[in-house]
Amino acid sequence: xxxxxxxxxxxxxxxxxxxxxxxxxxxxxxxxANGDRDRDPAEITPHSEDTCTEDSSELPDDNxxxxxxxxxxxTYSELFGPSTAQKLKNEIETITLDLKSYNFDHALFxxxxxxxxxxxxxxxxxxxxxxxxxTSRKAVFNCSTYSPxxxxxxxxxxNGFASKIFRRALSPTEKQNIKNRFFKNSxxxxxxxxxxxxxxxxxxxxxxxxxxxxSSEKRQxxxxxxxxxxxxRLAFAITDTAPDQSLLSKAADxxxxxxxxxxxEAERLLESSAAKKKFHDFAFYWMKSDASFTFAQxxxxxxxxxxxxxxxxxxxxxxxxxxxxxxxxxEGSYKDLLSSKVSFADHEGLASIYGHDPATNxxxxxxxxxxxMGVFGRLPFLYSPTSRTPLIRRSLNFREQVLxxxxxxxxxxxxxxxxxxxxxxxxMSQLSTREFIAxxxxxxxxxSRTSCTTCHATINPMGNLFEEFDSLARVRTTELVFKSNxxxxxxxxxxxxxxxxxxxxxxxxxxxADIITAxxxxxxxxxxxxxxxxxxxxxxxxxxxxxxxVKEVYKTINQEGxxxxxxxxxxxxxxxxxxxxxxx
Amino acid sequence: xxxxxxxxxxxxxxxxLKGVGTCVVIPPLLSLMPxxxxxxxxxxxxxxxxxxxxxxxxxxxxxxxxxAGNLTTVNQVNxxxxxxxxxxxxxxxxxxxxxFADHFRDLHSEMNIINGLDxxxxxxxxxxxxxxxxxxxxxxTDLGRRLRSGRSIDYAILDSQAFKASFKGSLPVLRNTNxxxxxxxxxxxDSQGNFKSGYxxxxxxxxxxxxxxxxxxxxxxxxxxxxPSDPELSRKTxxxxxxxxxxxxxxxxxxxxxLDKFTLKEFAEEIFQIESKLTTTxxxxxxxxxxxxxKLKNKQAVSTNLNDYWKNxxxxxxxxxxxxxxxIYCVNLYDTNLHHQADDDGSASVMNGSSYKREFLRVMADxxxxxxxxxxxxFSLDGESMLDxxxxxFHSDHEGRAVHSGASVPVLTFGKLGGDIxxxxxLDYRNKALExxxxxxxxxxxPSKMLMISILQSMGLSKAEILREGNGSFGxxxxxxxxxxxxxxxxxxxxxxxxxxxxxxxxFFTKDWKKL
Lengths: 584, 516
Fold this sequence. Notes:
The complex is a heterodimer. Chain A is mainly alpha-helical. In chain A, 51% of the residues lie in helices and 7% in strands. A two-stranded antiparallel sheet of chain A has the order 1-7.
């Protein structure tokens, strides 16, 4: 099978099936108006910029949100200091609940039964650790003496640090209930009782979850958060941890309810190390990368001289530094995230992949190849654990995360039809990945299978554009192909040029850089980015780019000089950020 | 107990104190219990199963009566027409019923003798062609759950959500068996009475053969006596009590959605379970030397005397049930060398054939089932015995003769399984005369699957869990209903094939019977 024929035939097939293609992609941008099809894609507005819809996902009705494992760790760190959190790290890591999978569906985000017993034990251990550390004990209880414990120390605790743990002031009834249960004899309080009450609070749902019940008990379909709840929502949105003392103070005096104070607090928190830590990880959410790598399966011939020891960790670290550089150092924009050529690779292998000398002293370098730019030109997105590049995954993830387009999962019938095609190893190991995928998915007319082609004629061209990067994200012009047993087969030329469709637009691109340049200026991708950034900030899945909340964020992104930080603040300042909905 | 006496029991003092004992029975402590705790005890019965199977050689005349009293024919149960079956109370059948019926006369009010159940595909019978085997049957390459190797009730229960929710211990099922061909314990020994070398490698992690291993599995994690209380027990219960009180207030908040309330109730339920476990299971399984007499030789393989072995096992299971350390005990007797000559030998003195299985059952009745009848259930407030809330089943895969027939297999049951099983009867689920013990095939019986469903239903499995195909349930049994396939729709037993009547518990045997 000649690659040139395959390539030619793939093009023909792509053209013939162009009508079918439109039916495969599920885009959040419904190009209903026929007139849109003939317009410059840069000018296409999915719906008018002024058009938006009230999206039910903007205000979900789950008032109770359990803290994730990471948030529990962060909260311990905020309340009791990093060293205390570190001592509990092993116990916290046994909790199953986490947001690392970036599934923000809170209906699925439930505390597992087996976690509850573990948290009970952990809470007691934590209380002991905190009490036994004199610094922590003083910060939490601040008693003049601990043997015996003065009664006013309990009052001080309940009026003071206890409210930090529950992230709101305790009611008089709550305080009295605690006294009745834990301090029955106020004249004889011992240190064990302090440990008890601290452990109780750390095991309490008011600590382990976020409640948003507003200021009254009147049942309303929609109501405003009270100042403490607003502080908590703000703190977790920006820093992924509990409110700090400054924020709680503004909640206590209710000044946080003023828009100007809310904005200034959002901007203040954005400069914290906790905020940087959270938004470093936005890159991985955006790329759909789990930030885990293994290079063991890659053939030695493919790896060559590239240093892979420590490469995965270096790629994560470099991406985080890049995020910090763009968002904070440069006050950069969405376009910078997609197109900046700055690199911080200080690992020898990663620097060689990115085509520059290892960075030193945190000084930025520039990608050494013209093709590479932005977040999606980095190892975490391009990586594959096998010699075959993840052509389909790259395409699907790019469409989903950058363009808010999804391709439906293949049906059983599609798999069945695909199963009829079995290419011999001898033949398949002569094909480039592009040819291999074309043959496998029926975009090669010699093996055309309509049910596959319906979607893959759309999927494959986008993936082809990334074929100029190998499994280690190195730029390539030829591809080393291996047999199924891992033996080297042959070296074949790569071809990363193709025509892709985005909406009604056809884009002829020679590779990655061309498609990045094209989509960076598309309002579709900008609005999609607004949705992704808002979803990540609020840990909530917005249903649609058409959401009015998303639209407000988009307007910030789209304005001249609109920075990522401004977009995050815009997310916070939307009026619905202060609201809660109750549907049932 | 004096140290000397302990040593006479062939185990170290530490080991003895570690494992031998009895549970502190809960009822005397009821007045000291929190109200919520007492409610928990009444609302959940600890149902236990003893599943004893033999792949061959249960002499039918040792089980079923050979001459009849007056059997009552039943065609309708709870207003629903059913294929006819017959029954008679055991106490109406005279004094010479069968070997087992006569031997277990003291247990008559607690037991049933069942005749006439047919295994799936009985006509082409091989071992364990569809009957539950207590644990696994012949072919356990996939843990005995292949169709040809029969169903396994313990796996079905282990898969059930209800059972998982109710049992918090670490060993829900104790499988006292070897794998592969289900060698009977005695066949693993060499001429010196020791286990054959290398056999350990053939015992999978989920099964135990040596009585010492059983002991370790059940009691190895129990702390030395006196059972130390959890040092954090009072702290944990204090915290949980206050959080529970707070949850009552929180859950009532009008601005919580129904989903949020459900979530909080789940949290409350789980901490209630944690507290229940803290305040019951651990402290109730303390040590009381003298009540049990395991003769475990430290560092020796096993008891060399077969009866001693089964006595040890029976006593250990009894204790484990009392302490809720396990809920299901499975044992399968199978002997590759003897099983084809195992039947009709009629000799109780010769250690071959069905005789050793008779001995096994006698020991189990005397040292496990009988004591369970005479022991108050420590988890019941209603004065029930352990046997009232349990079911022991002994069955044969085949009808008894030296042929591979899965028709009309004999079954013995003991216990009421929480009141769900009616007892004290001879039940004949066949369409044939009482005196006709064996085949011909054309005379069908009720599908054995229905007995399994009775048990699973009582153990709390949902219909979907019971009828699920594969992985320990009985949905695929239908594919092997060919022993009913040639019946015309008008024939009495045809409904099992034509109308799916087999997807029901066994009528009459199941007390409040109704179709699934």
